[in-house]
Every structure is written in structure tokens, then in C-alpha cells.
Amino acid sequence: CPGPVAGNLKNTSKEVRPDSLKNDDEPAPAPAPAAPPVSGSMPAIDFSKLTMSAEEAGERVINGIRRNDLYIFTHTEFAAGVKSKADAMLRAYPDQPINPDFNKVFGFLTRNPIYDTQTTPKPPVME
To answer: What is the model's pLDDT at position 44?
Structure first.
């Protein structure tokens, strides 16, 4: 799933949404912020400098398909959060010995060698 990508999805979603899924009601109001921002505490953000172009995101997806990547991530900024989540999952396993008989019978459920084939892609070359 990509991070922020420049595009017009917000503007075109209503146009392409199937009639069976359309909801003409007014959208629910956004929830109030947890703490009101302190005046002047956060400078205005130019999101155009933070979003990836649709072309670059598309190029990354095409490169991932051509490489047969198992996962295609567009924004490396999410890597630390993914690692933190994966580390938490690993810490949640009980500290006990592994049953070798279980692995003999159910090894196909516990490990797949295809994950060892994933390599790190280079960023796309944008022209």
C-alpha cells in the first residue's frame, strides 16, 4: 500500500463509484482533534513536497511486478513502523522450546522458502 501519492482520487471517486455503493448523504464530520493545536506551533505544510508522484508510485509497482517481488512498498518512511510491529509480534511468542515433531508435520504452515527470495529493490530511475 503506498503512502501519500499526488493524484485526484478524492475528486474522481464519486464519479467512478458504482451506483450500488453511492452514498449521497452528507459525510460525517471529522472527529475533534485530541488536543487543539497551539497557535503558531506548527508551520504550514506544503504537502506537494511530501507526496510521491503517481508516475513514480506506478514505476515502483511495475518494477516490483517485473522483479516478482513478494511485497511492493513505495515509501521507505514506513519501514521503521513495520519493523516495530514485526518485532512486537516476535516478542509475543511464548518463551518455550519448539516441538520438532510439530515442524515435521506442519512445517509447510510455519515456514515458506519463497520469503528468502525477496531482495531489496533500487529506487526507480525517473526520466
So the answer is: 85
Q: Is residue 4 part of a domain?
A: no
3-state DSSP assignment of residue 45: coil
- List, for residues 29-40, the tens digit of each pLDDT value: 777 766 666 666
- Find the domain containing 81 and state its range: 9-25+41-116
**In the structure grid, which three cell numbers stand for residue 90, read together?**
516476535
Please count the structural domains in the chain: 1
**Cβ neighbour number for residue 60 with a 10 Å cutoff:** 20
Q: Is residue 124 part of a domain?
A: no
Buried b (16+ CB within 10 A) or exposed e, 13-52: eeeeeeeeeeeeeeeeeeeeeeeeeeeeeeeeeeeeeebb
